Amino acid sequence: MNRDLLGIRQLSSDQITDIIRRSDGYFLHLKSNDPFPESQILTGRTVANLFFENSTRTRTSFELAEKRLGATIATLSMQSSSVSKGESLMDTVNVINSMKIDCFVIRHSSSGVPILLRKHLPDSVRIINAGDGAHEHPTQALLDAATLIEKLGSLKGKKIVIIGDILHSRVARSNMILLGKLGAHVTFISPPTLAPKFAEEIFGVEIRNDIGDSLKNADAVMALRIQLERQSGSYFPSLTDFRARYGLTTLRLQDSNTYIMHPGPVNRNVEIDDQAADTEKSIILHQVKRGVAIRMAVLEWMFEK
Amino acid sequence: MNRDLLGIRQLSSDQITDIIRRSDGYFLHLKSNDPFPESQILTGRTVANLFFENSTRTRTSFELAEKRLGATIATLSMQSSSVSKGESLMDTVNVINSMKIDCFVIRHSSSGVPILLRKHLPDSVRIINAGDGAHEHPTQALLDAATLIEKLGSLKGKKIVIIGDILHSRVARSNMILLGKLGAHVTFISPPTLAPKFAEEIFGVEIRNDIGDSLKNADAVMALRIQLERQSGSYFPSLTDFRARYGLTTLRLQDSNTYIMHPGPVNRNVEIDDQAADTEKSIILHQVKRGVAIRMAVLEWMFEK
Amino acid sequence: MNRDLLGIRQLSSDQITDIIRRSDGYFLHLKSNDPFPESQILTGRTVANLFFENSTRTRTSFELAEKRLGATIATLSMQSSSVSKGESLMDTVNVINSMKIDCFVIRHSSSGVPILLRKHLPDSVRIINAGDGAHEHPTQALLDAATLIEKLGSLKGKKIVIIGDILHSRVARSNMILLGKLGAHVTFISPPTLAPKFAEEIFGVEIRNDIGDSLKNADAVMALRIQLERQSGSYFPSLTDFRARYGLTTLRLQDSNTYIMHPGPVNRNVEIDDQAADTEKSIILHQVKRGVAIRMAVLEWMFEK
Fold first, then answer.
1. ipTM, two decimals
2. Which of A287, B229, C74, C105 has the greatest number of CB atoms lying within 10 Å of its CB?
């Protein structure tokens, strides 16, 4: 049974629940101080991590998940690779695949690359989307949902606010789809310039340009990362202005009991105030830990016989 | 019994045949979808990959070969290393070797570096040349020969055409020597500016500056890579002109039954037309797969007791 | 029993002797040509190597030590990481730690970073200082001491000369503290501009600005590395001048029977003449080999139950 993780869109709610459930045992090991128990799940299997975008944390999370399941791994940071010698993406992937790769984990700045790989590679090769353009980032949405379920129980009817740069965010998009499948109510809040364009898909999603009292009744709020390195004042007047209108400030959170989440890396005192990031309602590091567990669960699910 | 792979020149035809034969079993595993069987051949052994030239594909091929044989590996991309702090090559190698290295895999832009290492390092340390300047690239020639034998049987009297930048090509040079030892007939085709200078060694090699009807009777043709990043019109008028005169174009191949090979990465529509690269006579990915098998076979052969 | 290696300062002389003694068995294996015996000491344990400063040799030494003890490892070269995206050091460390890290090995250009980590991370996480600013480099001092003990026996009353850029050297500082604890007599020799500023700590250390006859009676001399890439004539007139006044020249060593050491990478014919670096009294590569053994011993000591 060969399975892929191309996006949340391709998963049923049963599959989502199955993967989250599988992650529970791994999560317990991750919280323990004992040695991680040996696993044979990926013994003799090779996972290739193709990172066309730099990402220390996501790459490390995948690598540790793979190694702890016993995989042989090859990580290719593709900025300095054959691609720079003019080779096409599919030629590169075909070459690496010829070395017997059982699973590709791919991150790419262009939307749709994992689906392109699925079309071209043999059925026996599994594919995990580790983030493609502004399209999907399914393991992030799965780890977010697993974290939310742990804190809130069933997500049916729960109020989840996602705030910030929705327009460019694959995290927002995967979360919107997943949370919709599990019955949560999603509110997007962003500057008008960073509001979503994929309106046709956002059934059931509420879109706002101001926070108002959204946080008061929210069960959880996810702040998205402002890509400082990409945005030079073109989408909002200044970081100070962004914080004033869309930041999770201490003031704004004081009457709220919401959980605070962020996919990282956090720009402190832009998206989230220092103090807010470190309260016990902040479950940002919890998300990271769950991330390794989810990636192990996805691999286990994919390689199930 | 400590063996090295410094170049094809140092191998007898029996040794070549022995290594190719050993690669057959690994190649079968590489074609299978089953987990790769565990191997103890390099258990407790450390292989250091010293890459003074960038090469994602060759480095990954070696690393996977080593890991699948159970080795502990250390890969050092030496552009960002102590070398840039002014340490001499041999000091760097001596330092790494003091950490107990059983085998060095070395790629370097200067011809002769693996031989230099052989002179300086203790006998107990094995050395594999992973490409040195314009000198040799023995694992490439071995994988090419293994691929050819699989397709053509004995190479005695077979007609192999090598086309492109012969002058700078260690691939051409190692192939010439190997194919000569196995009795094949080699034709070099290149612009006059890129013709070989090592004429004293090319006994039995035919040198031409035009393709003419060479492809008609060829059993296999290897297109070499044009180093786009190095050549700015100094060796031929333009890429369009190169393709017109030396490219494996669809037109040129239409009356031929030759196998098409390339050491990669391919510049599509320069050395090989898109359509030609993807026909069933193109065995470029086959070469890549055989490459991992050959590297495992070389390591097995080196560490044989 | 959770132990850290933040600096030599925190170790008792008994602990120092214990770690050095533990390294002896590993050192024997490192000198042998046999496969390295398998170890379960770090099975199921994850070691994260956080290198905020580039260091091929130290990083490789740690990685091989960890792998040979059976650890799962994650190496993060932090120049190209989230840090460049503006994330704070402690946020980065907290994120990586959430992936279940049993031990951090950290190198950083700022003094005190390992101590900062110790304050913030849970007790269950071990920390090894792999060099912090001009502060400490404890594994280097331990490997130096182990090498000296092997050559000289007890260090009580032995005369050790350390020469060169004392001011910026964490190696000098850790050695001074360690050698003091084991009862050796330390002499620092440097240009006045590169003399130590931590005078309050150098009890028992003799400070000189000229070599004089220091080498005649020295049991060992350690030359420190001149940071060519950082110093442009601001601390001494020229490299030629430095060599003339502070270099371990052949002439200067000819009446001495001292052992010659260097933490590497060596600038040949600056700190040490070519000929002197390669005599049998030069034990520079011996230091490197002992370095892997010491790092294995430190890990064994840390993870002792």
1. 0.95
2. C105
- Take residue B91 and report the two structure tokens written for it: 């000091």
Contact, A186 vs A162, CB < 8 A?
A: yes
* Residue B232: CB atoms within 10 Å: 7
Lowest pLDDT segment from B186-200, B210-224, C7-21, C204-218:
B186-200
- What does B170-188 look like in DSSP terms, one character per residue? HHHHHHHHHHHHTT-EEEE
Residue C71: phi and psi, rounded to 5, are -75, 155
Which residues in chain A are contacts of B289 at CB distance < 8 A?
A: 98-100
Among chain A residues, CA nearest to B225: A85
Residues of chain C contacting A, Cβ within 8 Å: 43-46, 72, 74, 76, 78, 80-82, 85-88, 91-92, 94-96, 98-100, 102, 124
Where helices occur in A69-212 by DSSP H, the ranges are 89-97, 113-120, 138-152, 170-181
Query: How far, CA to CA in Å, does A215 sit from each of A138, A188, A259, C243, C270?
Result: 25, 12, 10, 68, 65
What pLDDT score was predicted for residue C82?
A: 47
Q: Which of C67, C268, C285 sits opposite B94 (nearest CB)?
A: C285
Is the bond preceding A265 in cis, omega lying within 30 degrees of 0? yes
The predicted-structure confidence for C80-137, as pLDDT tens digits, reads as follows 544 555 568 999 999 999 999 999 999 999 999 999 999 999 999 999 999 999 999 9
Mean pLDDT of chain C: 93
Confidence of residue C294 (pLDDT cuts 50, 70, 90): very high
Inspect the interface and report whether the beta carbons of B76 and C67 lie closer than 8 Å. Answer: no
Task: Give just the sign of the alpha carbon dihedral A148, A149, A151, A152.
Answer: positive
CA B31 – CA A124 distance, rounded (Å)? 11
The 10s digit of each residue's pLDDT in B235-252 is 888 889 999 999 999 999
How far is the C-alpha of B146 from the C-alpha of B131, rounded, in Å? 18
Q: Chain A to chain C, count of Cβ pairs less than 8 Å apart?
A: 75
Which is nearest to A11 in space by CA: A174, A183, A206? Answer: A174
Average pLDDT of chain B is: 93
- Mean pLDDT value across residues B247-268: 94
pLDDT at C108: 95
Q: Which two tokens stand for residue B283?
A: 């065995």
Q: Which of B49, B98, B104 to mutate to test the interface with C (most CBs of C within 10 A)?
A: B98
Neighbouring residues of B107: CB distance < 8 A, sequence distance ≥ 6: B50, B51, B52, B53, B55, B58, B59, B130, B131, B132
**How is residue B80 written in tokens?**
């960002």
Handedness of CA B290, B291, B296, B299 (dihedral sign): positive
By CB atoms closer than 10 A (0-12, 13-18, 19+), residue C232 is exposed
The predicted pLDDT at position A88 comes to 84
Mutate: best of C63, C84, C99, C102, partner A, most A CBs <10 A: C99
Tokens describing residue B261: 């090979």
What are the DSSP E strand ranges found in A246-286?
Answer: 259-261
Determine the longest span between alpha carbons in chain B, in angstroms: 57
**Could you give the CA distance from residue C35 to residue C228 in angstroms, rounded to a whole number?**
38
Kindly provide the residue ranges of all beta strands, DSSP E only, lying in chain B, ordered along the sequence.
Answer: 46-51, 72-77, 103-108, 126-132, 159-163, 185-189, 205-208, 220-223, 259-261
Phi, psi of C170 (to 5 degrees): -70, -25
Q: Which residue has better confidence, A295 or A205?
A: A295
Report the alpha-carbon distance of residue C266 to residue B237 in Å, rounded.
Answer: 47
Of the candidates C30, C35, C228, the beta carbon closest to that of B45 is on C35
Q: How far from A129 is each of A118, A298, B57, B217, CA to CA, in Å?
A: 10, 11, 22, 46
Beta strands in C164-245 (DSSP E): 185-189, 206-208, 220-223
% of chain C residues with pLDDT over 70 = 93
Distance of CA B175 to the CA centre of its chain: 8
